Every structure is written in structure tokens, then in C-alpha cells.
Amino acid sequence: MLGLQADTGYLLYRLGLRSGQLFNAALQESGLRLRHHAVLRYLGTVEGALQRELSTRLGYDPSAIVGLVDDLERLALVERRPAPGDRRSRIVVLTDTGRGFLKDTDVTSRRVTDGLLAPLDVDERATLHALLSRVNDEHA
Fold first, then answer.
1. Which of 1, 77, 81, 82 could link 72 by a cystine bridge, Cβ 3.0 to 4.6 Å?
2. What are the counts of helices (DSSP H) followed by strands (DSSP E) for the chain?
């Protein structure tokens, strides 16, 4: 019987868990969590998104998205606007305050990632990222 350290899925799970813990701790002062950051990060790449698109893209339950967007809207990091071409729908867009917050958290994100991946050199980090991206793209 193989130990847990021989199970790649378990190692990915543990590393993801640790990454989330460290990132949540780093964001604690702002009152946000990694899930909020993921919404902001996605919105930083688009001109706005319907909540159902956020749910699909991020893999979060639609009811969770509502709460996350509510939290972000209360902090003026995002706002809901009428969707072009469909006045019944609303899109979520990043505000200027949200863009600034996202820039500030880039430093935090790099610090957390650098700490996690400290045992790897630059080339190994690039290889790991490329491999994880490839696997992720296959399952996205």
C-alpha cells in the first residue's frame, strides 16, 4: 500500500489547501477571502460578467456568487450595471477602487506563491505552472 505522499491528487489537495490558508490569512485585514479575490481577478480580465458567468468560470455555486458580489459591492470594489442589450440582466464590473485593490493584492499573491514554492528554482516553478495550466485547461 502506498502512502499519501505517493498520491499526486492528495499532494495537489494539500498544496491547494495550504495556499488557500496562507492567502486567506494575508487578505484577512481587508475582510476578504480567496474566493472574493478570484471574482476580482476574473473581472480584471473582462469588461463585465453576468453572475451566472462568474459561477461557471470560477466553479462556484450560483448562490455563493451572489454573496461574494454583495460583499464586494458593499466595499465599492465592484458594481452591478444593466447588461447591454438586456435590461432585465445586470453585469458585474470592477470599479476603479477594485482595480487598485487588485493591484495591491498582486504583491500579496506573489509573496504567498513565492513562499509556497520556495523549494523550487525558477525553471521548476515555470514547469510546474505550465503543467498545472495544461491539466486545468483540459478540465475547464
1. 77
2. 6, 3
Check if the beta carbon of residue 73 is closer than 8 Å to that of residue 15: no
DSSP letter at 6 equals G
* Cell output for 125: 516553478
3-state per-residue secondary structure call for 80-135 = EEEECCEEEEEEEEECHHHHHHHHHHHHHHHHHHHHHCCCCCHHHHHHHHHHHHHH
Which of left, alpha, beta for 89 (phi over 0: left; psi -120 to 50: alpha)? beta
Backbone angles phi, psi at 102, to 5 degrees: -60, -40
Global pTM value: 0.85
